[in-house]
Amino acid sequence: AQRVTQPEKLLSVFKGAPVELKCNYSYSGSPELFWYVQYSRQRLQLLLRHISRESIKGFTADLNKGETSFHLKKPFAQEEDSAMYYCALRGPDGSSNTGKLIFGQGTTLQVKP
Amino acid sequence: NAGVMQNPRHLVRRRGQEARLRCSPMKGHSHVYWYRQLPEEGLKFMVYLQKENIIDESGMPKERFSAEFPKEGPSILRIQQVVRGDSAAYFCASSPPGTGLSYNEQFFGPGTRLTVL
């Protein structure tokens, strides 16, 4: 079964500390992996996708197929990074490919001053 | 482009009433997805529609829930005879048509928070 697991509900760090938000997935095939972010009182928005291999707002994520992980990292957290982060997967589901996203439960990142 | 619009933002219904949630996709987007977020959980896919067609409704509860995306007007998620367990945030996302088997980025609306008393 397709599944995305974010083991931490809350991650609290001090400003300037490194951040790693964990994401593991279960999928038989080659999925697309994403990180979405929701800042306070804003809508969910795409942060980055693994196929882009880019860094957004200092965040990076590497797809590790051996460990089936897609952890989100930032070397130095900023207070404005405080938000809810969702890892998501997209891929063919059996014989269909409808583009639907499968989300993890989300991790709240709290960056303290 | 105003982004994906959802209304109402908050909806309160009593048990047994009907709830209608509306989603206006971004201009040029013909694909609409509905997701539900129960308290303390992540978003869960419900249904995927293109204009006048339901493409994938594998995440929809078998009873009381229906969705449509007419040729003109917004997509509507309809919940009949609501129960307390339907209380959740309902998100709509839209995307432009993909090419071949690829799918484009989904842009999310602000959500409708349904409370069933």
Summarize the structure.
The complex is a heterodimer of chains A (113) and B (117). With 113 residues, chain A is mostly beta strands.
How many DSSP-defined strands of chain B?
11
Low-confidence stretches of chain A: none
Strand percentage of chain A: 35-45%
How would you classify the quaternary structure?
heterodimer
Following the backbone from N to C, one meets helices and strands of chain A in this order, namely EEEEEEEEEEE
| Secondary structural class of chain B | mainly beta
Largest interface: A-B, 23 and 29 residues
What's the count of strands of chain A? 11
What structural category do the secondary elements of chain A indicate? mainly beta
Order of helices and strands of chain B: EEEEEEEEEEE
Strand and helix map with partners:
The complex is a heterodimer of chains A (113) and B (117).
Chain A lengths: L2 E3 L4 E5 L4 E3 L2 E3 L5 E7 L6 E5 L10 E2 L10 E3 L8 E8 L10 E3 L3 E6 L1
Chain B lengths: L4 E3 L2 E4 L5 E6 L6 E7 L5 E8 L2 E4 L8 E4 L6 E5 L8 E8 L11 E2 L3 E5 L1
Parallel strand pairs in B: 2-11
Antiparallel strand pairs in B: 1-3, 3-8, 4-5, 4-9, 5-6, 7-8, 9-10, 9-11
Task: Tell me what you see in this structure.
- The complex is a heterodimer of chains A (113) and B (117).
- Helices cover 0% and strands 42% of the residues of chain A.
- Chain A has 113 residues and is an all-beta fold.
- In chain A, 34% of the residues are buried.
- Chain B is mainly β.
- In chain B, the strands form two sheets. In chain B, strands 2, 4, 5, 6, 9, 10 and 11 form a seven-stranded mixed β-sheet that branches.
- In chain B, strand 4 and strand 5 form a beta hairpin.
- The N and C termini of chain B lie far apart (36 Å).
- The mean pLDDT of chain B is 92.
